[in-house]
TrEMBL record:
Species this chain originates from: Phenylobacterium montanum
Molecular function, one GO term: iron ion binding
Keyword Oxidoreductase: yes
Pfam families, alphabetized: PhyH
InterPro entries named in the record: Phytyl_CoA_dOase-like
Keywords of the record: Dioxygenase, Oxidoreductase
Protein name according to UniProt: Phytanoyl-CoA dioxygenase family protein
Transmembrane portions of the chain: none
SUPFAM superfamilies: Clavaminate synthase-like (SSF51197)
Highest taxon of source: Bacteria
Taxon lineage: Bacteria, Pseudomonadati, Pseudomonadota, Alphaproteobacteria, Caulobacterales
Oxidoreductase as UniProt keyword: yes
PANTHER family: IRON_ALPHA-KETOGLUTARATE-DEPENDENT DIOXYGENASE ASQJ, PHYTANOYL-COA DIOXYGENASE DOMAIN CONTAINING 1
Length: 301
């Protein structure tokens, strides 16, 4: 059985990225202290307890998945903006996009009796069309200990180079066992899946995922965190969940106003200030910026 590399929380981003590029997954140990984990559990817990289990084999008949955590959980917002994880996003995703985005927030609770999830690649959310780019970076923050008995995530280190059709040999798969407060970091290309919970207690993991800014988000952040809530957030987080242009003309919209009542083309952050008369870029400026960026992209290197 292969080993999954573990690193102290203060390991340099370059060293972490080298391991991530090689194995597709790693564990950062003891990133959060126990008081911080307790606070997250207390804040998210009422939503988790009200969430119904899945209705198919993949989502898990004894597994709950609770979302909209940017809107619901201020402490989750801090985790989304974690500088250690963002540094890895910069290295992994920015070579393929101008801006990456939040793809998913979900508290995954694997309850006793849950069988192991089928091994898969998260990048298959977009089908099997993406071959030459890495579209996403994933994290699972352990809010309970992750053990082999309670459903620690199964991972096949090094499987980022495998063809999609390969069926993982059990000997190539290990468990991401880690202490409460640690973080499993893995790419969209590594084979993995939730483990079987043969214990008598729940396994809680906070799943936060980032993706290239020109791809459709798995969790629709505009609906999970609509403008009236997003307007109250830190500007960096607003941009990360999608209230910013993704690239060139990606993300603009036209406010559905009466003829002549407002601008015709605005960036998505305009929705956060609708009615106030305040937004960061007017329609003429936005169109000029789009033209400039497209022109620059067309110039020979």
């Amino acid at each position: 059985m292969p080993d999954l590399a573990h690193f102290p929380a203060d390991t340099s981003p370059d060293d972490l990225f080298a391991a991530l590029a090689r194995d597709g997954a790693l564990v950062l140990d003891d990133v959060l202290d126990q008081a911080a984990v307790d606070a997250l559990v207390a804040e998210i817990g009422p939503y988790v307890e009200a969430t119904q289990p899945g209705r198919d084999v993949f989502s898990g008949f004894n597994t709950t998945r609770t979302g909209a955590l940017v809107a619901r959980s201020p402490l989750t917002r801090e985790r989304v903006l974690d500088t250690r994880i963002r540094a890895l996003c910069d290295r992994l995703l920015l070579p393929f996009c101008q801006r990456y985005q939040l793809h998913l927030t979900q508290l995954i609770r694997i309850m006793p009796g849950q069988v192991a999830q089928p091994l898969h690649r998260d990048r298959w959310a977009w089908g099997k069309h993406l071959k030459d780019v890495e579209p996403q970076l994933n994290t699972i923050w352990a809010l309970t200990d992750f053990t082999r008995e309670n459903g620690a995530t199964q991972v096949a280190p090094g499987s980022v180079t495998w063809p999609d059709e390969r069926v993982p040999d059990p000997a190539a798969v290990t468990c991401a066992e880690m202490r409460r407060g640690s973080v499993l970091v893995y790419t969209g290309g590594v084979f993995h899946g939730g483990g079987a919970n043969d214990s008598q207690a729940d396994r809680w993991g906070l799943n936060i995922t980032y993706a290239l800014g020109w791809l459709r988000q798995e969790e629709n952040q505009y609906l999970s965190c609509p403008p009236e809530i997003a307007a109250t957030l830190d500007p960096e987080l607003q941009a990360l969940i999608g209230y910013a242009m993704g690239s060139y003309a990606l993300g603009y919209y036209t406010p559905p106003l009466p003829a002549g009542a407002g601008p015709e083309v605005v960036p998505p952050e305009h929705a956060l200030h609708a009615g106030s008369g305040e937004y960061s870029m007017g329609s003429d400026e936005l169109l000029a910026a789009i033209r400039d960026e497209i022109g620059a992209a067309r110039e020979p290197a």
